[in-house]
Specification:
alpha/beta, TIM Barrel, Lyase, Ornithine Decarboxylase, Chain A, domain 1
C-alpha cells in the first residue's frame, strides 16, 4: 500500500511524496528481528517521521506491531494520539502504542502531557516538581557522555530519584544515548556503558523497578559489535525489559559503520519514501546556451532538457547543482539517470534528458527513492541522510 502525502488532490500535484506502508512495516520487523524478541523497539516518529509524515507513519507502525513511539514534543504527541484514535488505536482499546516525549518539556506542557497520555522524559528536579502528584510514569535520561540532556550518575541521580519517589511518580524507564554508535568498537561507547551501568546500579540499590532500560539508535543496532546482549543483561538486574530507539533504519537507511565487521541491518532495510515531480516543459538547447543563475552550465553541443517544478524551497538541496567542470545530482526519468544542469533554484530545476527517449511534459521524475537515494543526496551535499529526509518540505 502506498500512502501519498501532500496537498489535497495529490494526483494533480506537480510534486509529491509516496510512502510505502509495506516497506515501513518490513523495516520495523527487520530491526526487531535483529535485536531479538527480548528487546523492544521504540519507533522514532519525531520531526514529521523524518520527513515521511508523522500521522501516516505512526498508524502504519502501530499496525506493524510497534508498542512504543518516540516524539520530540507535546504537539507532536497530540497529533499522533489523534491519528491513532481515528485509526482504531484509541487509548481505551489497550492496543494503542505508548508515546515517549524524548526531548524534555516545560511546565506549560504538563497539562498536555497528561491529557494526551504521553510519557515524559525527566532529568532535573525542577521537571519532577512540575509533575508532582499526577501519578505519571516517567523515563529518566542519564547523561553518560552526550552532554546534551540527562542527569549525571552519582549525587545528581540520587537526588533526582529521591524527588521522583517523593512526588508520587512511577519510574517507567531509564535510558541513555550513545554519541559514537557509528564506530565499530568505540572506546567512548564502552565508557558510556560503564557510566550507565553505574546509574542502573543506583536504581537497584533504591529498590526501584523501571519497566524499561534502553539505549541505542539505528546505528547501535546496525553496529557489528552487538549492544542487545549487554542491554538485556543490564535490564535484568532491575527486573526491566530492554529497549532500543530506532529512527533512520525504519525509513530504509543506515549510516556507515566505521571499522571492521558486517553491518547487521543495512542489507535488510529499504527506502520508504519516493519523492516525485511532473515535468513542466521540455525544450532544445543550442550549443553555447546557458542554464540557470550565474550561467554555470553551458551546452557544449545541442541538448534536450526538461524543467522540474522543484527547488531548494522543496528540499532539493542547492549542493546538487552542477557546472561544466563539476557534475551534480541526478533524478530518474523513465528509469534512467537525468543529470541536474546548472544551479538548483528556489522553485525550478533543469535536467538533461538528451539520452532518454520519449520524454514529454507531464512525465514523472523520481527525485528521491531507489536509484537516487538520500545517501546519494547527502554525499553531494556534504551532510547525512537524516538532514536530507527531514529537509523534504511539506510544500
Amino acid at each position: 500500500m502506498i500512502l501519498a502525502a501532500g496537498i489535497a488532490g495529490e494526483n494533480l500535484s506537480h510534486t509529491w511524496v509516496e510512502v510505502s506502508e509495506e516497506r515501513l512495516a518490513l523495516n520495523f520487523r527487520a530491526l526487531a528481528e535483529t535485536v531479538g524478541a527480548a528487546t523492544e523497539v521504540l519507533a522514532v516518529v519525531k520531526a514529521n517521521a523524518y520527513g515521511h509524515g508523522t500521522e501516516l507513519c505512526s498508524v502504519a507502525l502501530a499496525k506493524a506491531g510497534a508498542r512504543w513511539l518516540g516524539v520530540t514534543s507535546v504537539p507532536e504527541g497530540a497529533l499522533i494520539r489523534k491519528a491513532l484514535g481515528e485509526a482504531g488505536f484509541d487509548r481505551d482499546s489497550g492496543k494503542a502504542p505508548s508515546i515517549l516525549a524524548m526531548c524534555g518539556f516545560l511546565e506549560t506542557d504538563t497539562a498536555g502531557m497528561l491529557h494526551h497520555g504521553l510519557t515524559p522524559v525527566v532529568w532535573t528536579v525542577e521537571q519532577v516538581g512540575w509533575l508532582r502528584g499526577l501519578g505519571m510514569g516517567v523515563h529518566v535520561e542519564v547523561d553518560t557522555g552526550m552532554g546534551r540532556q540527562g542527569v549525571r550518575p552519582g549525587p545528581e541521580l540520587e537526588a533526582l530519584l529521591e524527588e521522583i519517589v517523593g512526588a508520587g511518580l512511577r519510574l517507567g524507564g531509564m535510558f541513555t544515548h550513545f554519541c559514537s554508535s557509528e564506530e565499530g568498537d568505540s572506546a567512548l561507547t564502552q565508557a558510556q556503558e560503564r557510566r550507565f551501568e553505574q546509574a542502573v546500579a543506583q536504581v537497584k540499590v533504591r529498590g526501584l523497578r523501571p519497566g524499561f532500560v534502553h539505549a541505542g539508535n539505528t546505528s547501535a543496532v546496525d553496529n557489528p559489535v552487538p549492544k542487545a546482549p549487554w542491554l538485556i543483561e543490564l535490564a535484568k538486574t532491575v527486573g526491566a525489559r530492554a529497549m532500543v530507539r530506532c529512527g533512520l533504519g525504519l525509513y530504509g537507511y543506515c549510516l556507515p559503520i566505521e571499522g571492521d565487521g558486517v553491518s547487521a541491518v543495512r542489507a535488510k532495510v529499504k527506502p520508504v519514501m519516493t519523492w516525485k515531480a511532473r515535468i513542466l516543459a521540455v525544450r532544445e538547447l543550442a550549443e553555447g546556451e546557458t542554464v540557470g543563475y550565474g550561467a554555470t552550465f553551458a551546452a557544449r553541443s545541442p541538448m534536450r532538457v526538461a524543467l522540474l517544478p522543484v527547488g531548494y524551497a522543496d528540499g532539493l538541496r542547492r549542493e546538487l547543482s552542477s557546472t561544466n567542470e563539476r557534475p551534480g545530482g541526478w533524478v530518474l526519468v523513465h528509469g534512467m539517470r537525468a543529470p541536474i544542469l546548472g544551479r538548483v533554484s528556489m522553485d525550478l530545476t533543469v535536467i538533461d534528458v538528451s539520452r532518454i527517449e520519449g520524454v514529454k511534459t507531464g512525465d514523472e521524475a523520481v527525485l528521491l527513492g531507489e536509484g537516487c537515494t538520500a545517501e546519494d543526496h547527502a554525499r553531494l551535499a556534504g551532510t547525512i541522510p537524516y538532514e536530507i529526509l527531514c529537509g523534504v518540505s511539506p510544500r
